[in-house]
């Protein structure tokens, strides 16, 4: 039996598929898409897959300071953060995550809201 969320849902390959689907939703979101107009999406998907891996118990880690540095210039609002959580929750549901695992991932992100939201 797998010990971590990361392992239970298929490891890095599965996380990459989840992150790719999630960003399809983000890019379709009128609330969030403007943040990604000039972004190297391939690079972002790689970083985000590592970040989601880290919060699900995979072999990666991101410090709050790193997250703060990356997000400080973006002017992310609390409403945008909430939209991101809604889209991520929907994505995880569509990939068959158990509610307890969705709640855990969402909780991990909420704990970092203070270093991501800057407006």
Notable traits:
single chain; Globin-like; globular; about 0% strand; about 120 residues; about 65% helix; mainly alpha
Sheet-strand content, in percent, reads under 5%
Q: Would you list the SSEs in sequence order as H and E?
A: HHHHHHH
- Overall 3D form: globular
CATH domain class: Mainly Alpha
pLDDT below 50 for ≥5 consecutive residues: which ranges? Answer: none
Which structural class do the helices and strands define? mainly alpha
From the 3D structure, determine the CATH topology. Answer: Globin-like
User: Total number of β-strand segments?
Assistant: 0
Individual helix count: 7
**Count of discrete structural domains:** 1
Let me know the largest β-sheet: none
The end-to-end distance, rounded to whole angstroms, is: 42 Å
By CATH, the architecture is named Orthogonal Bundle
The CATH superfamily is known as Globins
Average residue-wise pLDDT: 94
- The level of helicity is 55-70%
Rg calc:
14 Å
Q: Overview of this structure, please?
A:
This protein has one domain: Globin-like (Orthogonal Bundle), CATH 1.10.490. It has helices at residues 5-8, 11-28, 41-55, 64-71, 78-94, 99-111, 113-116. It has 119 residues and is mainly α. Helix 2 (11-28) packs across helix 5 (78-94). The chain contains seven helices and no strands. The N and C termini lie far apart (42 Å). The mean pLDDT is 94. The protein is globular and about 40 Å long.
């Amino acid at each position: 039996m797998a010990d971590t969320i990361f392992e239970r849902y298929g490891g890095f390959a599965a996380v990459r598929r989840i992150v790719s689907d999630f960003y399809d939703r983000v890019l379709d979101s009128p609330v969030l898409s403007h943040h990604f107009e000039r972004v190297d999406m391939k690079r972002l998907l790689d970083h985000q897959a590592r970040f989601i891996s880290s919060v699900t118990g995979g072999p990666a880690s991101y410090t709050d300071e790193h997250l703060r540095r990356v997000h400080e210039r973006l002017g992310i609002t609390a409403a945008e953060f909430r939209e991101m959580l809604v889209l991520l929750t929907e994505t995880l549901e569509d990939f068959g995550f158990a509610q307890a695992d969705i709640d855990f991932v969402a909780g991990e992100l909420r704990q970092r809201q203070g270093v991501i939201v800057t407006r």
